[in-house]
Design goal:
Layout (H helix, E strand, L loop, with lengths): L5 H11 L17 H16 L3 E4 L5 E5 L8 E7 L12 H16 L8 E6 L10 H6 L5 H6 L8 H6 L18 E9 L4 H5 L4 E6 L1 E10 L3 E2 L11 H19 L5 E3 L3 E4 L5 E2 L2 E10 L2 H21 L3 E10 L2 E2 L2 H13 L6 E4 L4 H5 L4 E7 L15 H19 L1
Parallel strand pairs: 3-4, 3-5, 5-16, 6-15
Antiparallel strand pairs: 1-2, 2-4, 6-14, 6-16, 7-12, 7-13, 8-11, 9-12, 10-12
Helix pairs in contact: 1-3, 3-12, 8-9, 10-12
Bound molecules: (2S)-amino(hydroxy)ethanoic acid and manganese (II) ion (MN) (2 copies).
């Protein structure tokens, strides 16, 4: 059994956790923000200090490479993301990137021979400041000029301008696609971001499938008017429409979804946004997830009909944009078996489970065999400064990743 250098990985995780941290202990490394660029710079330095090749592609994905790339053998790839949501924890994404780098360092230090080259990649904008999974979609060849033109953050900043500010051209992402034959496998280590492993006292989970999702930006347009002199029966209050949509979410899920379906209104903007003005426009995100593609289609239709009926009844205009549409995937069975073999060798229980969260792995699964390894999240907390995983679980997860990558690449 190969083993990671525990102290070195822990030091990397602790150092990265200091980049972009605010007073409230949350991390603010949104894609292509200054903090994200600092983290990227630091990661490139760590790659160079490990005497590994750095490669940055057109989508600004950062790759560390080990082995012979000349003999055009397909790579075994691992990785995740360094960008975060606003107010994030220190492990979402970071764990997979830094554990991947640690795996390449150990294999290099031990002079182990490889049949297939190894790569660890840090994908750009996984968290969706500009829609989501930008870097992995670039590698999978799923980007289009329109997707890039339309990609704006909640404050209206385009990905083009955000990347331009750092001397990057967003359109170069169209050249980042990798031919599927250049990849043998993709394996991602990630925190579970849910309560299952922690509740069952398990150190490692083998992911069998990953939820799909759709994310809409919905706009309800009524009429801004005086809050004092406009009688209630003469109002076209866009916020009231939003409030009614929010109250219908549980019913729509119960009537059209599965036990796995979830829906979230995570970002709301009212305009003009003054206390003494009836909101003329209510703009909000609606994000819906399930493990089954069919169920997602049915839910999309049900939400469209529900919102349109509410808009009609309240004399509001209704429009929506699809910000992201990610299909659910099953993880590769053969790689799950390899992971299981190393989980058992390490003395852990082998436990397979679905992923409620979305991951770059499900984009990579469209061009190569992909699988994931989970470690527990304390109390299931994530996307919060309370995100935490016991060190011994991180160590187990990273050792499973290390041995899985070596088995796939030797
Ligand atoms: O939202 C997600 O599922 C992931 O953390 N980007
Ligand atoms: Mn993540
Ligand atoms: Mn996340």
């Amino acid at each position: 059994m190969l083993k990671i250098n525990s102290q070195r990985l822990q030091s990397d995780i602790d150092t990265l956790a200091g980049i972009g941290r605010a007073e409230n202990h949350g991390l603010y490394r949104q894609a292509f923000s200054d903090n994200d660029m600092l983290a990227r710079q630091w990661f490139c330095q760590r790659i160079e200090q490990a005497q590994l090749q750095v490669h940055i592609d057109g989508a600004a994905n950062i790759h560390a490479r080990l082995g012979e790339f000349a003999n055009n053998k397909p790579s075994v790839m691992t990785g995740s993301h360094l960008d975060t949501i606003p107010g994030a924890g220190h492990l979402d994404g970071a764990l997979g990137v830094l554990s991947g780098l640690e795996c390449l360092r150990v294999i290099q230090e031990q002079g182990l021979s490889l049949t297939y080259p190894l790569e660890v990649v840090s994908f750009s904008d996984e968290e969706g400041r500009f829609g989501g999974m930008f870097g992995s979609q670039a590698i999978a060849g799923q980007l289009t000029p329109k997707r890039i033109y339309d990609a704006v953050d909640p404050d209206g900043l385009s990905i083009s301008d955000a990347m331009q500010a750092h001397g990057l051209n967003a359109m170069d992402a169209l050249n980042a696609n990798r031919p599927p034959e250049s990849l043998k496998a993709f394996v991602e280590l990630h925190i579970e971001q849910g309560p299952v492993l922690h509740r069952q006292g398990l150190s490692v989970g083998i992911v069998e499938g990953i939820n799909g999702l759709f994310k809409w930006l919905v706009r309800l347009k009524g009429q801004a008017n005086h809050a004092g002199s406009t009688p209630m029966d003469m109002r076209r209050d866009a916020f009231h429409g939003l409030a009614e949509v929010a109250m219908q979410v549980d019913r729509v899920l119960e009537e059209n979804g599965s036990a796995r379906s979830v829906a979230t209104i995570g970002h709301v903007q009212l305009s003009p946004g003054a206390a003494n003005v009836i909101p003329g426009v209510a703009e909000f995100t609606l994000e819906v997830r399930d493990i089954d593609e069919q169920v997602l289609e049915i839910l999309a239709d049900a939400f469209r009909r529900t919102i349109s009926a509410i808009a009609r009844r309240r004399d509001l205009m209704f429009e929506f944009e699809v910000l992201s549409r990610i299909h659910p995937v099953k993880c590769d069975r053969a790689i799950q078996e390899v992971i299981k073999q190393h989980v058992l060798e390490l003395g852990c229980a082998d436990f397979t489970m679905p992923s409620g969260a979305a991951h770059d792995s499900q984009i990579m699964a469209t061009i190569t065999s992909a699988a994931m390894i989970f470690v527990p999240s304390k109390e299931g907390r994530s996307h919060s400064p309370d995100e935490w995983t016991a060190w011994e679980d991180i160590e187990q997860g990273a050792n499973v990743l290390l041995n899985t990558l070596y088995t796939l690449a030797k």
